[in-house]
Specification:
By secondary structure, the chain is of the alpha/beta class. The protein is built from five helices and five strands. It has a five-stranded parallel β-sheet. Strand 4 (90-96), helix 4 (101-109) and strand 5 (113-118) form a beta-alpha-beta unit. Helix 2 (36-45) runs parallel beside helix 3.
Length: 139
């Protein structure tokens, strides 16, 4: 079972992701964060998360959020993780409604971002996530 977290300020988007992933039967219970700051606080500064110890954590990161956006969150996460004794066992996929070519290009330029999914989540999105996750694990 794949551990997964979603960082998205949209309640409806988080709900849809939760339903789609749970229907597939391949994902653990979704851990939800309503902002980039909450994700950083809990993941980087909280107790070591149990869900990152055995299998890589899949993080679905929204781009457009109030406060720290998804790109700023990923950049801060990467910078802090490089200073931390914790190992990076995280697969980050941008999950957004943005069809902006510049956003897609920026996501490709960030080495910790492994994919880009468009909202809303569809059945083929699950297949794409599973391919990305499998490739990440094979490494």
């Amino acid at each position: 079972m794949i551990p997964v977290a979603i960082v998205d300020d949209g309640e409806a988007d988080r709900y849809l992701v939760k339903r789609r992933l749970s229907r597939s039967g391949k994902f653990q219970e979704l851990i939800e964060f309503t902002s980039g700051d909450r994700f950083l606080e809990e993941f980087l500064y909280g107790p070591p998360p149990i869900y990152t110890r055995s299998s890589p954590l899949l993080v679905l990161m929204d781009i457009n959020m109030p406060g720290r956006d998804g790109f700023q969150t990923v950049e801060e996460f990467s910078a802090r993780l490089s200073e931390s004794p914790r190992s990076d066992n995280t697969l980050i996929v941008m999950y957004t409604s943005s069809l902006n070519d510049q956003d897609q290009e920026r996501a490709r330029e960030i080495h910790t971002v492994r994919g880009y999914l468009e909202k809303p989540m569809r059945n083929d999105s699950i297949e794409q996530i599973l391919r990305l996750y499998s490739a990440y694990c094979e490494g």
